[in-house]
Amino acid sequence: MKQKIKLGVVCLIRNTFDFNAAKKIYKGILKDLDNLENVEIKAVKEAIEFPHEAQEAGSYFGKEEVDAIAIISGTFHLGHLALEIKAKCDKPLLLWGIPELPYDGGKIRLNSVCGVNLNASNLTKSGYTDFEYIVSNTIDENWIDAVRMIVALKNARVGLLGYRADGFFNVGVSELSLYKKYGVIINHYELDDIFSYKEDKQRVQYFENKLRKNFCVSGVTDKQVLLTATLAAKIEKFMEDAGISVMAIRCWPEFAKGYGVAPCGAMSLLQDEGLILSCEGDIDCALTMLCHKAAGAKTPFMADLSQINIEENFALMWHCGVAPCSLQDGKCTATLDTYFAGGKGVTAGFVMKSGEISIARLDSINGQYRIFLEKGKAVPMEKELTGTYAKCIFDRGMKKVLDKVVYSGIAHHVSLIYGDKTRVFEIFARLTKTGIVKDY
Fold first, then answer.
1. pLDDT of residue 324
2. Is residue 325 within 8 Å of residue 334, measured between CB atoms?
3. With the C-alpha atoms ordered 32, 36, 42, 48, is the resulting torsion angle positive or negative?
4. Of 50, 56, 89, 325, the residue nearest 215 (C-alpha)
5. Contact at 8 Å (CB) between 293 and 285?
6. What is the CATH number of the domain that holds 42?
7. End-to-end CA distance of the chain, in Å?
């Protein structure tokens, strides 16, 4: 389910143009907007023309605490209007132009695009660039999804269980820089908080059944299966009770010793239930996964760019066994394995399904944020390794992708999804003034 947002909508007009036609179009737009998934519309029902009306509209949006505002240029209009709205309610904007109507007696009827141009110029020269524009009869749902990402970050209760993995300096964050940029506050918990947490026995049984249904468990003991199911129940209840929407876990080296198994298998189960969890204490990757989910991606998970082949143009997107168990390719035998931590690994093992994929990472560097984006497809391969993995061919070629990763210093974890939210992240970047990592 996509992140719920509250959207303000207003239509601007000028009586020297065909404002009656614009009003009719606006009514149709409002009717269409009611069909959007998880969007609460707060509309100024009547089109506005004068500055005092724009001030009232902005105050209304502020009172209703909207997350973003769609400003429709029904016709060309006064330049005051968008500025007055922005002054009263400083939220991301969609500058929305209506395609021109057939001419009537040699006169342009709407001149809507010119209104968009006017608003964009006024805002930009005032220092406001947190807007996207469209010229269309329907709203840009990519813009809506980008707003969902912003709201998800601001509303998130983020947990860090333990700390980042030992030596993974590159996944550390400046917590107050993160708060300033996206409104995210990190809540710290100790590993013992999970180890000692009281689990729901019914959920333990549920997760044990799910493990045995989805995996061949012959490579692990019954005790390890039970420990993994119990851990899944503990983490689930802990996050629910604490109101945590996303959690990064220091999964090694202490976890296996302190609890008895590593959390990988449990994380595979939980992510299949819709929870957002990242390995190795990687907050930024967890937040990227949260953004993906907010925009409608069903199963984001953390992956490494683990193996590359320049000549054959592919990469192995791998991790130690945390991908949601529903992403199995349906051909290989999914297993629970104990290939690390002295036999206490208990990780998921399977080849992931084929299909369109995209990867992203919100990545901090010296307290500043940028976004890494690529897309491609996962293709069939044989199961030859432990862990969860997919053979991926990137649209722009392996060498360009690797150059960008290495020379920009992007951390070695990304959020991988099936589907493509690249355009949504590009709009998110504009609305939040976050740079996008370019080619080298």
1. 96
2. yes
3. negative
4. 325
5. no
6. 3.40.50.10940
7. 37
DSSP 385-422: SSSEEEEEEETT-HHHHHHHHHHHT--S-EEEEES--H
Q: Give the residue among 398, 404, 412, 401 at the shortest CA–CA distance from 440.
A: 404
Tokens describing residue 70:
């769609």
Please report whether residue 144 resides in a domain.
no
Task: Report, in angstroms and rounded to the nearest whole number, the Rg of the chain calculated over CA atoms.
Answer: 25
- What residues form DSSP beta bridges with 94? 70, 132
How many domains in the chain? 2
Sign of the torsion angle spanned by Cα atoms 296, 298, 304, 306: negative
93 is a domain residue = yes
Residues 102 and 199 in one domain: no
- Cβ atoms of 43 and 66 closer than 8 Å: no
CA 245 to centroid of chain Cα atoms: 13
pLDDT reported for residue 170: 95
The CA–CA distances, whole Å, from 217 to 220, 336, 345 equal 6, 5, 13
Q: Where does 304-350 have alpha helices with state H? A: none
Answer left, alpha or beta for residue 155, where phi above 0 means left and psi between -120 and 50 means alpha: alpha
> Which structure tokens are listed for 110?
């709407």
- CATH number at 321 reads 3.20.14
The predicted pLDDT at position 345 comes to 77
User: Within 13 Å of residue 369, how many CA atoms lie on the same side as its CB?
Assistant: 25
Residue-wise pLDDT for 43-52, tens only, equals: 999 999 999 9
Residue 404, token pair as written in the block:
């960008």
Report how far residue 49's alpha carbon sits from residue 62's, in angstroms, rounded to the nearest whole number: 20
- From 216, 197, 217, 283, select the one nearest 245 (Cα to Cα): 283
Beta bridge partners of 97: 73, 135
Query: Would you state the pLDDT for residue 440?
Result: 85
Q: Is there a contact between 147 and 291 (Cβ–Cβ < 8 Å)?
A: no
